[in-house]
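Ticket #4471: structure export looks truncated?
Reporter: QA, pipeline team
Priority: medium

Steps to reproduce: submit the single chain below to the structure queue and open the exported record.
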Amino acid sequence: MILIFTGNGKGKTTAAIGQGIRAIGQGKKVFMIQFIKSESWPTGEEKVIRELAPRFTLVKGGKGFVGIMGDKLPREVHKAAAEKTLELAKEEILSRKYDLIILDEVNVALSLHLISLEELLDILRNLPQDLDIILTGRGAPKKLIQVADLVTEFREIKHPFQKGVFAKIGLEY
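Actual output as written to the record:
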C-alpha cells in the first residue's frame, strides 16, 4: 500500500513513526529516510528509533530546512542531498529487506523541486508487492495522491507558532 500523510497540520512524521512502531510490533522491519531533516537537528523520536535498531532504521539525508530558519546553504547542496536521499530510498525499496519504508518530508522535497516527481512515481510504480510505503510532508502533488491507496490530510487549526512561540522540546522535536 501507498500511504500519504500531508497537509499543513502538525503530526505527519509522528503518525508515520507510529505506523512504524505498529509494524515492528507485528514482527516487521521498517526503514525511514528523511529528506529535509538533518543530523544537525536531533529529535526525540530519532533517539528512540535508534534504540529499536535493527528492526527500525532511520537515516537523515537532508541538510536542514531549505531557505528558512537561518539556512545559508546554497540550493544546489539541498538538491544534491535530496537526490542522493531518493537514490538511497530506491535502493532500500529494491533490497526487499523491509516491510515498511517511510519517505519523510518527501512531499516537501517535491514542492521545492529538489527531486523529480516523475522519478518518484517510477519508483512507486515498481514497488515490491508486499512492501508498504508512507510519504509524508506538506503539499502532496495531485499525481501522487492519485496513485496512493490511503491519503490523510492534517489540517492546522491552531498552533503556538502563530503567536511567536517556537518549537518545544519533547513536543515538536
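Status: closed, not a bug. The export was complete when the record was re-opened. Leaving a note from the reviewer for reference: Residues 3 and 134 are 5 Å apart (CA to CA).
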